[in-house]
Specification:
Elements lengths: L8 H14 L4 H8 L7 H12 L4 H11 L3 H11 L13 H15 L2 H38 L2 E6 L5 E4 L5 E4 L3 E6 L7 E12 L8 E4 L3 E5 L3 E7 L4 E8 L2 E5 L6 E4 L3 E6 L2 E6 L4 H7 L1 E8 H12 L2 E4 L8 E7 L4 H9 L5 E6 L2 E5 L1
Helix pairs in contact: 1-2, 1-3, 1-6, 1-7, 2-6, 3-4
Keywords: Membrane, Transmembrane, Transmembrane helix
Protein name: FecR family protein
InterPro entries: FecR, FecR_C, Ferrdict_sens_TM
């Protein structure tokens, strides 16, 4: 049950009048509280009534607001009366109408005809406002609910060690990397071309200057018109990099308006000191597309191991004794098994590994 501070007697009758004339559900509330308010000061109650019906004079308004300044109880009742219309959304009780009718008859008997007529006009004015607000809220809510219900997504995931090639509705081709997910709404290509990426994907974007292609990675937004690039963004590791093959891309940090990069072909964007940073890219486009082979040219061992763990979907622990800054040059096929990749790395770098379980590996000296 809704509970509010008691109103002044005459003010309650005004809202009881509103209830019966407009079938609002708070008539029972008003009627049940009337007995609690009989002991209140009639003078302030009358001023409250005049204020909310628009009949208060300037002098009376000054008196009311002066009293509100040092009467906490009156202030609470004033605030409650301001919010009374919110009760219109409460569910009606079975005897609301009969109780409201009694309230109205009691109300009408205490007021003069001209007074009642004036209040009646004000009541319908307030009722119209409530109906308009309630109707607007209803249709706005219905619109968003229906929109949410109609909004469906296509989600494509690639398992560990595998790639998945898909063609999006606009003609864009995407090669989804291992342990990665690409997601887009059924409204894709209807005004916008937005996709969500978790993991790594190579995009060959269909050119359309009227509909920019946007890739959201959670923290960053990549915007292009038509280009080829590879994006890697694993949120659980905060690993992010973009390699541009041709065209142009813009990368925005969604949490920092000053952090933005525009890449040219053969440039790579990475995170350095928590900001976007670009350098020369060593990404081999053709080899990756044909065979899923990733080239490393003087890439640090720690970075190579991190990428391997992301492709394989396993956790990684590297002991302090391991030289993670050792430069590695070579090729790794994403579809190879975890052990075969680690053994290949052991041929050029001195380390040992332990597969603790299917979800975690340890690298040590």
């Amino acid at each position: 049950m809704v509970r509010l501070m008691p109103f002044y007697y005459t003010a309650i009758d005004v809202f009881s009048f509103l209830s019966i004339k407009n079938s609002f559900p708070f008539s029972t509330f008003c009627s049940s509280l009337r007995l609690l308010c009989k002991e209140q000061k009639m003078e302030m109650g009358d001023l409250l009534t005049k204020y909310f019906t628009g009949d208060i004079t300037g002098e009376e308004k000054e008196t009311l607001f002066r009293e509100l300044g040092h009467d906490d109880e009156l202030k609470k009742d004033f605030c409650a009366m301001q919010n009374i219309l919110a009760l219109a959304e409460a569910l009606p009780e079975e005897n609301d109408e009969s109780v409201g009718a009694d309230s109205y008859r009691s109300f009408a008997a205490r007021l003069k005809k001209r007074r009642m007529k004036q209040l009646f006009l004000h009541a319908w004015r307030y009722a119209a406002v409530v109906c308009l607000v309630a109707a607007s809220a209803y249709f706005l809510t219905l619109h968003w609910v229906n929109k949410e219900r109609n909004l469906q997504f296509t989600e494509i995931s690639a398992p560990s060690g595998q790639r998945v090639k898909v063609t999006l509705p606009d003609g864009t081709t995407a090669w989804i990397g291992p342990c990665s997910t690409l997601r887009y709404a059924n409204s894709f290509n209807h005004g916008t071309r937005n996709v969500e990426l978790s993991g790594s994907t190579y995009f060959d974007v269909a050119h359309n200057p009227d509909k920019p292609f946007r890739v959201s990675t959670g923290r960053y937004m990549i915007t292009v018109l038509g280009t080829r690039f590879n994006a890697m963004a694993y949120p659980e590791n905060e690993h992010f990099e973009v390699d541009l093959i041709e065209g142009s891309v813009q990368i925005d940090n969604l949490s920092d308006d000053t952090d933005r990069l525009v890449l040219k072909p053969l440039e790579q964007a990475i995170i350095k000191n928590n900001r976007l940073y670009k350098k020369i890219s060593n990404f081999d486009n053709e080899e990756y597309l044909k065979n899923g082979v990733v080239h490393f040219k003087r890439c640090l061992l720690g970075e190579v191991l991190k990428k391997v763990s992301l492709w394989q979907g396993v956790g990684l622990t590297i002991d302090n004794e391991v030289d993670v800054n050792y430069p590695v040059t070579g090729k790794i096929r994403q579809s190879d098994s975890l052990e075969s990749i680690l053994r290949a790395l052991q041929s050029v770098v001195r380390f040992h590994y332990e597969i603790i379980d299917e979800k975690h590996i340890r690298i040590y000296r």
